[in-house]
Design goal:
- By secondary structure, the protein is α/β, with parallel strands linked by helices.
- It has three domains: about 290 residues, Alkaline Phosphatase, subunit A, CATH 3.40.720.10; about 80 residues, no CATH class; about 80 residues, Arylsulfatase, C-terminal domain, CATH 3.30.1120.
- It is about 30% helix and about 15% strand.
- It is globular, with a radius of gyration of 22 Å.
Length: about 525
C-alpha cells in the first residue's frame, strides 16, 4: 500500500492491542471537582497531528497532551459537520435528539447541556471562540464567541455587550482571551473552560509569521487522489474535489492585481477575509503571495498538473494554520503549569470532525468515510489519576458530556445517549462497551452536494445507506480495504455480513430512537 494511505492502517495498528494499556489509577486522592479545559478545533484531520501521523507536520504542543495523557485511537463523530457536531458534544445526544441536524438549524439553548449541569454543581463556566449554533450560549458565566464561522484576521467577537471587531490573528486572540478569563475567574470555584478555535476551517489563512513555513515543500499525492468513485454513486456526485471544486482565489488566494483569474468566489475572498486585513497585514501577505500568483500565472497549468499544484497549495496553507494552533495550545499548557493548575485540571483536545487531505481527491468532510468520520481525541487527567497510554475502544463525541460530568462528580442524566469514558480512562475493559457506532448526516441539498446518509461502523466493517434523492448501500471491509475503495454490497460472499450489519443498524436506530426507522 502506498505511503499516503498508510495512515488508516497505522491508526488501526495504533489501536490494536491498546485496550488495557492505560495504567490504572492508584488508590490516592484525586480532585473531587477538577477543572476542565476543553479545547476543540475545527476540521483538524488526525492525519496532521503527529501523535497520530508524522508524515506532514510535527505538533509538539498537542503531542504533549498525548504523551502525558490518553490517546484515543478509534475516536469518531456522530454527524461530520460543524454546528451539529458541536450540539452533539454539548448535549451528549445524537442530532435527531438535540434538534440540530444541519447548519440551517438553530440550537435550542433551553435544553440540557453539560455546561449547565456543571454550572448547577458549582462550576464557573466559559466558552471562548467558535460557537456556530446561531442562538446565544446558555449555561455559561462568561461567553465571547466568533460571529458565525469567524474570520482569521481581525475577527468580530460577540459577548453579552454586543459585537466588536478585535485586531489580530484569530488563533492567538482566542488563546489570549482564554488566558485572560482564567486570570480573572473566581478562584474559589472549579472551572470549565471551552476553548473553541476557528482553525483549521476553510479558507486556511495562515498567520503572518507562518506564511512561508511550508512554501517550498511538495507533498506526494494520496494513491486514491484520482479516484473514479467506481461502485460508489454518492461519492461520484459530491462537489468537494480539489481538482474541480477548490476555488483558485477563495481557497488558494490567487488574487491577481490584474483580475485575470476570475473564479466563482473571487469576490468572496477579495471583499471578505482579504478586505479585513490592516494595511500592514495586507502588505506582509502580498509580499509572500504576489510571487506565488505570478509564478502560477506563468506556468499555465492544466489537467492533472493543475490538480497537483492545487493540492500542494492547499496542504501548505492548511499546515501553516495547524502550526499556529499547536503553538497556542503549547502556550495554554504553559499557562496551566505556571499558575499551578496542571495537577488539578483535565485537558481535552479534539476537533469537531476530521477532514480530507486529498484522499479520494477531496477537501472538506461530511461523508461517513474514515477521514471525516474519525477525529483526534486526547485527554490529560490530573497526575493523581496516573492515566496514560492508548485506548482502542470505539468512542464518539456524544461521550464527552457524560465523561466530563462523571469526572466532576455530577450525576449523568439517563437521557444522555453517550457513554462515559471514565472506565476506559481507568484502564478497565468493560464487557458491555459498545461494539458499533451510529452515524447520520442530514445536510442535503448543500454546498458540497453530499447526499444524506446514515450508517454503522464496527471494528471491521462499515455499512452506509445513502437516501433521500438516491437509494444506495455501501459496505466496506476496513481490514482489507482501509481506504474504502471497494463497495462490497453486491458481493455474494458478504451476504451474511450485510444481513447482520443491517440488523445491527436497525437496533442502533431503535436504541437512539432515530425517526428514520419509521420512514
Amino acid at each position: 500500500m502506498k505511503d499516503m494511505n498508510r495512515n488508516l492502517v497505522m491508526i488501526c495498528a495504533l489501536g490494536a492491542g491498546a485496550v488495557g494499556s492505560v495504567s490504572a489509577a492508584p488508590k490516592v486522592s484525586v480532585p473531587k471537582q477538577p477543572n476542565i479545559v476543553f479545547i476543540m478545533t475545527d476540521d483538524h484531520s488526525f492525519q496532521t497531528l503527529s501523535a497520530y501521523d508524522r508524515r506532514f507536520i510535527n505538533t509538539p504542543g498537542l503531542d504533549r497532551i498525548a504523551k502525558e495523557g490518553i490517546t484515543f485511537t478509534n475516536s469518531f463523530v456522530a454527524n461530520s459537520i460543524c454546528g451539529p457536531s458541536r450540539a452533539c458534544m454539548l448535549t451528549g445526544k445524537h442530532s435527531h435528539t438535540n434538534g440540530f441536524r444541519d447548519n440551517h438549524d438553530t440550537f435550542d439553548g433551553s435544553q440540557q447541556t453539560f455546561p449547565k449541569l456543571l454550572q448547577n454543581a458549582g462550576y464557573q463556566t466559559a466558552v471562548i471562540g467558535k460557537w456556530h449554533l446561531k442562538s446565544n450560549p446558555t449555561g455559561f458565566d462568561h461567553w465571547s464567541i466568533l460571529n458565525d464561522q469567524g474570520t482569521y484576521y481581525n475577527p468580530d467577537f460577540i459577548d453579552q455587550n454586543g459585537k466588536k471587531r478585535h485586531e489580530g490573528y484569530v488563533t492567538n486572540l482566542i488563546t489570549d482571551y482564554s488566558i485572560n478569563w482564567m486570570n480573572q475567574r473566581d478562584q474559589s470555584k472549579p472551572f470549565c473552560l471551552l476553548v473553541h478555535h476557528k482553525a483549521v476551517h476553510r479558507i486556511w489563512m495562515p498567520d503572518i509569521p507562518n506564511l512561508t513555513l511550508f512554501k517550498d515543500q511538495t507533498f506526494p499525492l494520496p494513491s486514491n487522489f484520482f479516484d473514479d468513485y467506481s461502485g460508489r454513486t454518492a461519492a461520484g456526485k459530491q462537489k468537494m474535489s480539489i481538482a474541480k471544486d477548490m476555488d483558485l482565489v477563495y481557497d488558494l488566494k490567487m488574487l491577481d492585481k490584474e483580475g485575470k483569474i476570475q473564479t466563482p468566489y473571487r469576490r468572496d475572498f477579495q471583499n471578505g477575509e482579504y478586505a479585513r486585513m490592516t494595511d500592514a497585514q495586507r502588505k506582509a501577505w502580498n509580499e509572500v503571495y504576489d510571487p506565488i500568483i505570478r509564478h502560477f500565472m506563468e506556468a499555465k497549468l492544466e489537467g492533472k498538473a493543475l490538480a497537483e499544484w492545487k493540492y500542494n497549495r492547499y496542504m501548505q496553507d492548511y499546515l501553516s494554520c495547524v502550526k499556529s494552533l499547536d503553538d497556542n495550545i503549547a502556550r495554554l499548557l504553559k499557562y496551566l503549569d505556571d499558575n499551578g493548575l496542571t495537577d488539578n485540571t483535565i485537558v481535552v483536545y479534539t476537533s469537531d470532525q476530521g477532514f480530507y487531505m486529498g484522499e479520494h481527491g477531496w477537501f472538506d468532510k461530511r461523508f461517513m468515510y474514515e477521514e471525516s468520520f474519525r477525529t483526534p481525541l486526547l485527554m490529560r487527567l490530573p497526575k493523581a489519576y496516573h492515566a496514560q497510554g492508548k485506548v482502542s475502544q470505539l468512542v464518539q463525541n456524544i461521550d464527552y458530556a457524560p465523561t466530563f460530568l462523571e469526572l466532576a462528580g455530577v450525576p449523568v442524566p439517563e437521557d444522555i445517549q453517550g457513554q462515559s469514558l471514565v472506565p476506559l480512562l481507568k484502564g478497565e475493559k468493560p464487557e458491555n462497551w459498545r461494539k458499533s457506532l451510529y452515524y447520520h448526516f442530514y445536510e442535503f441539498p448543500g454546498e458540497h452536494a453530499v447526499r444524506r446518509h446514515y450508517g454503522i461502523r464496527t471494528d471491521r466493517y462499515k455499512l452506509i445507506h445513502f437516501y433521500n434523492d438516491i437509494d444506495t448501500w455501501e459496505l466496506f471491509d476496513l481490514k482489507k480495504d482501509p481506504s474504502e475503495m471497494k463497495n462490497l454490497i453486491d458481493n455474494p460472499k458478504y451476504k451474511s455480513i450485510i444481513a447482520d450489519m443491517k440488523a445491527q443498524l436497525k437496533k442502533l436506530q431503535e436504541q437512539y430512537r432515530d425517526p428514520i426507522i419509521n420512514q
